[in-house]
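User: Second chain of the day. Same drill as before.
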Amino acid sequence: MDEQKKPEVPAEQGIPTEPIPEIREEEVPAEVVEQPQEIAQPAAPAQAYIPKSAGAEEVRQTKWQKLKDFGVECRRVLRVTKKPNKEEFKTIVKISGIGMAVIGFLGFFITLIRELFF
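Assistant: Same format as last time:
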């Protein structure tokens, strides 16, 4: 890789001026490398029930297989999610509150207009 010359930043701004050393692959633990690959992989395709009269494009899954696939997908999503920090939680609460207020005002005005004119 070509090293481009980067402008020097004064130390009083709190930004380090020395370059950050690259991490070699042998320094990274194996579980750190494997974990994102495991999380990103989709669930294994379930064996589907294929009636003898069905064509190649017509494949139906049984209810048990659908439920099993749903459980696998839920576990995969839960492995990826994380607990929000305090700042993220406050933002989520504010946005949700604003959304509920907007929907409430819309319902109120629609009811008010319906009562006044109809």
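Helices lie at 30-40, 63-80, 86-117.

User: Great, on to the next one.
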